[in-house]
Amino acid sequence: MREWARELIGLHGTKLICTPVLIEMFAGTTNAKELELHRAYLGEFDVIDGRKLPASVWDSALRLAQHVPSNSSIKRRHLGDCLIRSVADHFHCEVLTGDKAMRRLPR
């Protein structure tokens, strides 16, 4: 798993993640072996927010959560997506994701 993480880091040229990414990964863990693998994988990354989210990040996430899109491309906003976008904006970082709904969140 560590090698897979290193390959991803090399591909994208960054090893930054944020606390909500950690939580989402661990929340998807279903057994002890997966937990061990997730810990090894995530251990290769640096947590940009130091596991401390300032009030401005929470305020931004709340603003995103309350944004009702004018079209139907996004039916619901997700807590993790709102927080990830807000942390990235706070630290002036790009969000790298394959999640289409996440990419459509406003800035």
Word description of this protein:
There is one protein chain. With 107 residues, the protein is mainly alpha-helical. The chain has six helices and two strands. A two-stranded parallel sheet has the order 1-2. It starts with a helix and ends with a helix. The mean pLDDT is 90.
End-to-end Cα distance: 32 Å
| Number of E strands | 2
The dominant shape is globular
**How big is the Rg?**
15 Å
Supply database-style keywords:
about 110 residues, mainly alpha, two-stranded parallel sheet, about 5% strand
Can I get a quick summary?
The protein has 107 residues and is mainly alpha-helical. Helices cover 55% and strands 4% of the residues.
Helices, strands, pairings?
Blueprint: H1 2-12, E1 16-17, H2 19-27, H3 32-42, E2 46-47, H4 55-66, H5 79-90, H6 100-103
Parallel strand pairs: 1-2
Helix pairs in contact: 2-5, 4-5
